[in-house]
Amino acid sequence: MVSGRKVIIPIDGSENSERAFAWYVEELMKPGDNVTCLHVVEPMSLPLLTMDPLPQPPFPEWEDKIRGKLAAIEQLKTKYENQMKSLDICGKMVIEEASLASVGGQICEIISREGGSLVVVGNRGLGAVRRTVLGSKSDYVLHHARVPVVIVPPKM
User: Fold this and answer.
1) pTM exceeds 0.70
2) How far apart, in whole angstroms, are the C-alpha atoms of residue 80 and residue 142?
3) Are 43 and 156 in contact (CB under 8 A)?
4) Cβ proximity of 87 and 25 under 8 Å
5) How far apart are CA 38 and CA 147, in angstroms?
6) Ramachandran class of 22: left when φ > 0, alpha when ψ lies in -120 to 50, beta otherwise
């Protein structure tokens, strides 16, 4: 059994999630922590038809987008696995395809399933109105996770 905290850090390749990981390392990391870097893959929007020369599914375009998405996911996975290894952090990468209407909801579900005891998440620094209109995964996790959540704000 792993002793210490089970820290979950949702990542998406953005500067905000990179800042959350760095903040954890600089300010919060303790010996015995077990870290899960979590990436929920959001559904891709693909065009349904192309009109060149006749209406047909744009299979080559789909293939290119899917290959690009898979390559980006693999790059993200490798980056965080290498960072954890170089910093001697006991941890793993969890990558899951979004299956719920809310990515924030899925993050909370995975936090529970993984036995998380603490979440460190970056945010974009949206104001209250923009956050309400656009939605915020960090805001959702803050209000729905059943464990303490640290939100790392953007640099000012």
Assistant:
1) yes
2) 23
3) no
4) yes
5) 16
6) alpha
Q: What's the average model confidence in pLDDT over 89-100?
A: 90
| Alpha-carbon span 106 to 85, nearest angstrom | 27
For the record, the structure tokens of 142 come out as 């803050």
Per-residue tokens: 12? 């998406």
pLDDT for position 134: 39
Tell me the three state secondary structure of residue 9.
strand
Residues in CB range of 35: below 8 A, 6 or more apart: 7, 8, 9, 24, 84, 89, 90, 91, 92
Over the stretch 63-93, which tens digit does the pLDDT of each residue have? 788 888 899 999 999 999 999 999 999 999 9
Give a three-class secondary structure readout of 51-95.
CCCCCECCHHHHHHHHHHHHHHHHHHHHHHHHHHHHCCCEEEEEE
Whole-angstrom Cα distance, residue 151 to residue 134?
18
| Span 106-148, pLDDT tens digits | 999 999 999 999 999 998 655 554 444 334 788 889 999 999 9
CB 11 within 8 A of CB 38: yes
Map residue 40 onto helix, strand or coil: strand
Q: How far apart are CA 80 and CA 23, in angstroms?
A: 14
Q: Kindly report which listed range (37-51, 93-107, 140-154) carries the lowest average pLDDT score.
A: 37-51
